[in-house]
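Task: encode each sequence below as structure tokens.

Item 1
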Amino acid sequence: MKLLFVCTGNTCRSPMAEALVRKRLPQVEVQSAGIFASDGSAASHQAVTVMEEAGVLFAHQSKPVTKERVEWADLILTMTEQHKQLLLEQYPHTAGKLYTLPEFTAEDAGASWKLLQEAYADLETKRVRFASGYQGDPNRFQSEFMQAHEREVAHIRELEAAMPATDIMDPFGRSVDVYRETLKELEFYVDKLAEKIHNEK
């Protein structure tokens, strides 16, 4: 498997994830890149500090996302939903291999999205029906519709709250303690990634 991690500047999150995968999954070919990265910038000193604390080899120079790197990868994992959407705009053909790291590793993400999409579709059908027979003040339509379908709206909010997180916290420019928290988050998801790759063999 060829795996590409993507973040913004390729000096914190994606290279940290890359280094963790190199240690945890030596059989996986892995690279990292940044959507707005330049070539050859050093990793942030806070990232170097926390990786050394964790005993992970971490020698890194930043690289930008390129067509060649995108084509090379069998799987592209971004740090945030925004990174994912930006890549989809530029490389729409990657849709089948492009996920956020939390999204890809969440066991129930697909089922959760399906339930949420069905609930949205059901509410939209009811909104169209409500609109067709609505005789009140047009300015009050939305609030009256929401009140009339309070239970459905509450259900959607519950589903949204239960959705797996899709973003890895950005520690850029913050304290070493924040970088430690980001590292813990990355370690959690890389462990889940390792389990998923192992189970798919």
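Item 2
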Amino acid sequence: MTLGRIVVSVLCIFGLGLGECFAFELKSKGEIVWVADGDSFRFRPDNALMWVKLKSFAKTRDGKTTHSLRVDDRFHLKDMSFLVRVGNVGTAESGTTQGRLAEQFARSVLEGAEGTLYCWDIGYYGRPICSFWTDNWEYGQALIEKGYSDYETRYGEHPRFHKKYLKASGRR
């Protein structure tokens, strides 16, 4: 756990004024069962407990927002999969040329891929914010290196791969 996550966790434990305390880290192996676009996909973990915990975090976050996070749409009980938003990247929308290229890239490397998913937050639209990697590569880093996305830090640095993402973006 990074120092920032530890500080947030301690502040949450002692109730020191943080409105939303969602400092968590969950990791599981599994497979990608569907690609939505360049930075979103559906993941089925090998560990059902991850699915249960993430859905619980999303329900808790949903209860603290003014808009619906559509949690039941994001988490499918039938196949124990959930919709993921890749953290710290932002590909163009699918309706644009760049967005279609990012989506094609995502489909070529992600569909049916098995690997590890690491999640640390629930996003504005109710999707877990996560990173995905295999033994050979990490997806967000690949998006940045290939020019499909910038390294997005407006909501904070990547909790695990900050230095790799900086290097991939040429910012060191």
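Check on item 2: Strands lie at 26-37, 40-45, 75-76, 81-86, 114-122, 128-133. The first strand starts at residue 26 and ends at 37.
End of task.
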